[in-house]
Fold this sequence. Notes:
Layout: H1 21-34, H2 39-60, E1 63-69, E2 76-82, H3 89-97, H4 99-104, H5 107-125, H6 127-138, H7 144-154, H8 161-176, H9 181-194, H10 204-217, H11 232-258, H12 280-304, H13 324-327, H14 329-348, H15 354-366, H16 369-388, H17 390-403, H18 409-424, H19 430-447, H20 452-463, H21 476-486, H22 492-520
Antiparallel strand pairs: 1-2
Amino acid sequence: MSARSDATNTPPSKTPPSKTMTQRALDTVERVGNSVPHPVVIFLILIAIVLVLSHLLYMLGASVTYQAINPDTHKIETATTAANSLLTADGIRHIYTRLVPNLMGFTAVGLLIVAMMGVGVAEEAGLVNALIRKLVAVSPSWALVYIVAFVGILSSIAADAGYVVLIPLAGAAFLSVGRHPLAGLAVGFAAVAGAFTVNMIIKPLDAVLTEITNDAIHMVNPTTSLDLTANVSFSIASVLVLTIVIALINNRIIEPRLGAYQSEKTANTQPEANGGQLSADESRGLRYSGFALLGVVILFLLLTVPSGAPLRNPTTGVLIGNSPFMNGLIGVIMVLFLATGIAYGIGAKTVNSSTAVIAAMTKAVASLSGTILLFVVISQFVDYFNYSNIPTLMALTMADVLKSANIGTLWLLVGFIIVVMILDFVFTPAIAKWAIFAPVFVPVFVQLNVDPAAVLAAYRVGDSPINAITPLNAYFAMVVGFAQIYDKKAGVGTVVALMLPYTLWMAIIWTVLFVVWYLLGLPWGL
């Protein structure tokens, strides 16, 4: 971005306002970060490092013996994990045979493609733009950042769908009111990734984490168990606090640093002089999309609400948790955007044939080519890293150090949060980490008379904020791609500099909230 000047009104001697120390530090982070190679090259380098490191650890005979919970059987198993070399005959065979399976098993790929098929139609038809303008018209301007942050945190009910739906919409929403779109992307990413483990309602992740926690509790106390609401009170408070924190960081740090957004490409998308009021065709399109939304809701109510409905768990009958409905929720989102997008297009006269719908879907998928290429490389790295067993060796080594520390209970909990945060830089899957940590820490804290719900709450705090800054987050590279839509020079450093204030302040404030909650003895759940 170039500084704006006015030869008539601005004296030649007047200089732009000096940047704060924080802004200069973030500019340095961005400059250094953007000087690194393309993310594809970065992950190729990381793969080379893992290859060498795995062989060194293998030659040194690195191994750990521990008790872990099998997430499938929920049984406690004693296991010994040793470093696996990727440069032995077995390792080379693994690399050779896993190229395609690694990509096919990388959830982010299918999720992104399916979601964008529906979102692409809604966007091409004009529904997304019209909805954002309607939201802006009925909401005070100051509330936009709070709405985006709040909805972003709640989007975790749909698993990873918030990454591919909410984040780009947040950028578009900010742009529509003349605010910097990169700030919108940052708010969306901070909310979706940085607060992923909490929500105001029960979600599938809660069921898995709770079950693993109970298995760990039963190692020392078979009569005690947590239920799904064990962390609800703390989660609700966390959502409210983090919404405010995210909004304040945007308003006080991010947008002042970014300044006004200037782009010829998007000049015509700035708010119109008439306030951006909807035309008659657009209003009709929104009405049609409302009817389509009602139809989709009725359809899925019929598929989920009745006893024995096909999208309920066929064995237990549950809807929330392990059920076809929750496991395939991305399909609901795709159908929702597809139906409402087509209906809007018909009403607004922007879609006049099935060919136009297919063209919109094709365009949306084609726009993902660069991201899919990156996912090919990332999926290989993730597989090789896990095959080497380096994450497990790191997690258990750090756990042993913390467990043996002679500190008080509260400091042990805070130390646990910090250890989880550090590990999250390189080992992001929430369930996999908890399956390793729960059998190590939950029995220790139970024996110290600490409520297991507090331990699970501490894990939620530690597992989330780093998700917004680690390039090993499967969606980090995708956010870089979203940023390049608005700034062709954006790179890894741009996103890291945007997200660093969110990560630091969310980690600090959330940990403080946990400590205050613990000291006051407030109930963790309902």
